[in-house]
Amino acid sequence: MMSPTTSSLPRAMMELVGIMLLKFPPFLRIWIITLVSFNIGGILLFPSVLETKVIFAVLNMGVLLMTFLYQYYGGFTKLLGLAHIFWLALVPWLAFRLATGAVVPESYLMFWLAGVITVNSISLLLDIRDMYQYFYEGMIQPELYWKDQPTTKAE
């Protein structure tokens, strides 16, 4: 079992952002920016709408869980996808809101929510793959670190 790192929560959060924006391959950077943009876009466009508030709350819970996991395991592992577990409730709830007419059809809000449902669903599929690799294929070591990890010399 790995032990917790000593970095503070705000520092761990900043390291996570740094890894995602500076150390991820370009296509993953674009994906992360798309995912975040869809999930926070409503804050600017529809600040007083219930769905925006729920998405923002779920996003914050996920960010905190991801930061705790990163801090505990000392690097970016496949397990960090577990932070999107809250979306397993969010995505169906948003789809239900759209299906029952709680959101005005053909409105900008409806199109934004459909986008959130789409990108979050794709992300959940990728997270399921990551969880499988973590738990069943033994990919448990951190893959990315903010700082280069010291290497040990073979003796």
Percent of sequence in beta strands: under 5%
Major β-sheet annotation? none
Please state the structural category: mainly alpha
Helix amount: 55-70%
Oligomer: single chain
The rounded Rg comes to: 17 Å
- Low-confidence regions: 150-155
Q: Which outline best applies?
A: globular
Keywords: Membrane, Transmembrane, Transmembrane helix
Transmembrane segments: 28-47, 54-73, 79-96, 108-126
Brief sketch in words of this structure:
The chain has helices spanning 9-23, 26-45, 50-73, 87-99, 108-136.
Tags for this model:
155 residues; mainly alpha; globular; membrane
If you had to describe this structure to a student in words, what would you say it looks like?
Keywords: Membrane, Transmembrane, Transmembrane helix. With 155 residues, this protein is mainly α. The chain is 65% helix and 0% strand. It has 5 helices and no strands. Helix 1 packs across helix 3 and helix 2 crosses helix 5. It is globular, with a radius of gyration of 17 Å.
